[in-house]
Design a protein that fits this description.
Blueprint (H helix, E strand, L loop, with lengths): L12 E2 L2 E2 H8 L3 E5 H14 L4 E5 L6 H9 L3 E4 L2 H9 L7 E3 L6 H10 L3 E4 L3 H9 L6 E8 L21 E2 L4 H10 L4 E7 L10 H21 L5 E3 L17 H19 L5 E4 L3 H4 L3 E13 L2 E6 L8 H5 L6 E3 L7 E7 L8 E9 L7 E5 L20 E5 L3 E6 L4 H6 L5
Parallel strand pairs: 3-19, 4-5, 4-12, 5-6, 6-7, 7-8, 8-9, 8-10, 10-11, 11-12, 14-16
Antiparallel strand pairs: 1-2, 3-13, 13-14, 13-18, 15-18, 16-17, 19-20
Helix pairs in contact: 2-9, 4-5, 8-9
The protein binds ligand LLP.
Ligand LLP binds next to helix 10 and helix 11.
C-alpha cells in the first residue's frame, strides 16, 4: 500500500506503477490514489460491521471516479454541500444512501438534497427544523436524524474536536437542546425522525470515546422512548478513525473500533431496555488517506541558522494540514538511490509564508538536490479536498493507479485558463 513506502533508494511502485514515472508523466505536485487500496479499505469497514451501514465521508476527498468506487463497494455517502451532492448525482449515486450534514445548510444545499431525494438529513440546529419542513414537497416525509452533542472529549486536535461542549456542532444532550429538537421534529408531519447522530472528532486513536458515545446516545434513546413513546431505530456515530501518517502512529484497524462499538451497543441496549438500533459509521480519512501519495519536486535546498530547508513545488496550498493542525508527515526521496547518509531536514513549500512547512524534522539524504522527487505517504484525505489557489498556484491533479501498472487521470491540474476564467472583472 501507499502507506508503507519502503526506505529511500531507487524507485517505488504503487499498484505496480512507478511513482517517478508518474511524476514525469503528470508533472508535480501530483496526488496519486491507489484505487485497490481505497476499495480494500471500504470493504474492510463493511466486513468489520456487516449489519451496519458504512457511509464514506466525501469531505475527505471526492471526485466522480471515487463516487463510483464507493457505490460499487456498497457504501453510502456523507455529504455536506450542494457541490458534493452534485458530484454524487453526476454518477447517479443512489440518493437513498446519501446523508446530508452541515451546521449551516444553505437554501441551495437543501433544495439540491430534496430534489435528489437524499435518504437522511441531519438536523444540527433547532432553527433549521421549520425551514426544512416548509421545503419538503414529496409525498412522504423527509427522514431526518438529530446531531446530538454527547459532551465527550475524544482527543485529537482541538480544531477538529466536535464531541465536546463549547463548539458549533450538535445539539447538547446535557443542556436539553437535543430533547427540544425531538419534540419540534415530532410536531412536523413533513419530517420523520429516524435516529440520532454524533461525530466526536477526527483522527481519534482509540475505540474508547466511541464506546462512551454509544452509552450516552442509547441512554438518550431510552429517555426519548420514556417521554414520547417512540423507539428511534438508527444510531450514526460519525467518523474520525485515525490513520498512521508516520510509521508507528497509532491507527487501530476498523475491526478494533467495530468490536468495541458493537459490544457497548448490545450492552447499553440491554441495560436501558431499548431495541438495538441500526448502526451507521462515517469513515472518511481511514478509507482514503493511506491510499494517497503526494509527489513533489525539489526546487531549492538551503541551510539557515543551522537548519536544512528543502523546498518543493507545492506546499500549504495543496496540504494545509501541517499549518492548520500541526500535522506531521514522513517524506521519502524516490527515483534514485541516495549516495549520502541522511540528516534532519525541514521540507517546506513554495508559498510566501514562514509557516508553509510540509514536514518538520524528517530524515533525508544529505545529497538531496533540486530536481529530486519526494513522496509524502498518507496524503489521500483532506489535502486535495482542502486545496486552495493561494499565490495563484494551480491545484494539482489526482491520478489513480490500479492493478497491473495502470494509471489514469481523475482530476486534471488547474491551468492558466482556469485561473483567468473566473476573473471576469475587466
Ligand atoms: N462525519 C462527519 C459528520 C464529519 O464531520 C466528518 C469529518 C466525518 C464524518 C469524517 O471524519 P474522518 O473519518 O475523515 O475523520 N480537515 C481535518 C479533518 C476534518 C474532519 C471534519 N469532519 C483534517 O485534515 O484533519
Amino acid at each position: 500500500p501507499a502507506s508503507a513506502l519502503p526506505a529511500p533508494g531507487g524507485d517505488i511502485t504503487v499498484a505496480g506503477v512507478s511513482l517517478t514515472g508518474l511524476a514525469e508523466r503528470y508533472g508535480t505536485p501530483t496526488y496519486v490514489l491507489d484505487e485497490d487500496e481505497v476499495r480494500a479499505r471500504a470493504r474492510a469497514w463493511r466486513r468489520a460491521l456487516p449489519d451496519a451501514e458504512i457511509v464514506y465521508a466525501a469531505k475527505a476527498f471526492l471526485c466522480r471516479a471515487v463516487v463510483d468506487w464507493i457505490e460499487e463497494e456498497g457504501l453510502g455517502l456523507d455529504v455536506c454541500s450542494a457541490g458534493e451532492l452534485e458530484l454524487a448525482a453526476a454518477r447517479g449515486f443512489p440518493p437513498e444512501r446519501i446523508v446530508l450534514h452541515g451546521n449551516a445548510k444553505s437554501p441551495d444545499d437543501l433544495r439540491t438534497a430534496l430534489r435528489l431525494g437524499v435518504g437522511r438529513i441531519v438536523i444540527d440546529a433547532e432553527s433549521e427544523i421549520a425551514g426544512l419542513a416548509a421545503r419538503v414537497e414529496g409525498p412522504g416525509p423527509q427522514q431526518v436524524m438529530i446531531r446530538v452533542l454527547p459532551g465527550i472529549d475524544a482527543g485529537g486536535h482541538r480544531k477538529i474536536r466536535t464531541g465536546a461542549e463549547g463548539q458549533k456542532f450538535g445539539l447538547s444532550i446535557a443542556e436539553g437542546d437535543a430533547e427540544d429538537a425531538v419534540s419540534r421534529i415530532l410536531g412536523r408531519p413533513q419530517l420523520e425522525l429516524v435516529g440520532l447522530h454524533c461525530h466526536l472528532g477526527s483522527q481519534i486513536t482509540t475505540p474508547e470515546p466511541y464506546a462512551r458515545a454509544v452509552r450516552r446516545l442509547v441512554a438518550f434513546l431510552a429517555r426519548i422512548r420514556d417521554r414520547y413513546g417512540i423507539a428511534l431505530r438508527e444510531l450514526d456515530l460519525g467518523g474520525g478513525f485515525a490513520v498512521a501518517y508516520r510509521p508507528g502512529d497509532p491507527a487501530p484497524a476498523p475491526v478494533a473500533y467495530a468490536r468495541r462499538i458493537d459490544v457497548e451497543l448490545l450492552r447499553a441496549c440491554h441495560e436501558f431496555d431499548v431495541p438495538v438500533p441500526r448502526l451507521t459509521l462515517e469513515p472518511g480519512r481511514s478509507i482514503v488517506a493511506p491510499a494517497g501519495v503526494a509527489l513533489y519536486r525539489v526546487l531549492s535546498v538551503k541551510r539557515s541558522a543551522g537548519r536544512v530547508f528543502v523546498a518543493v513545488d507545492g506546499g500549504m496550498s495543496d496540504n494545509p494540514r501541517p499549518a492548520l493542525y500541526g500535522a506531521r508527515y514522513a517524506v521519502r526521496l524516490i527515483g534514485r538511490a541516495a549516495q549520502a547518509p541522511t540528516h534532519e531536514a525541514t521540507v517546506v513549500g513554495r508559498h510566501c509564508e514562514a509557516g508553509d512547512v510540509l514536514a518538520e524534522a524528517v530524515e533525508l539524504p544529505r545529497d538531496v538536490r533540486p530536481g529530486d522527487v519526494l513522496a509524502v505517504p498518507a496524503s489521500g484525505a483532506y489535502h486535495v479536498s482542502m486545496a486552495s489557489g493561494y499565490n495563484a498556484t494551480r491545484r494539482p491533479p489526482v491520478v489513480a493507479v490500479a492493478g497491473e501498472g495502470r494509471s489514469r487521470l481523475l482530476v486534471r491540474r488547474e491551468n492558466v485558463e482556469d485561473l483567468l476564467r473566473r476573473d471576469v472583472g475587466l
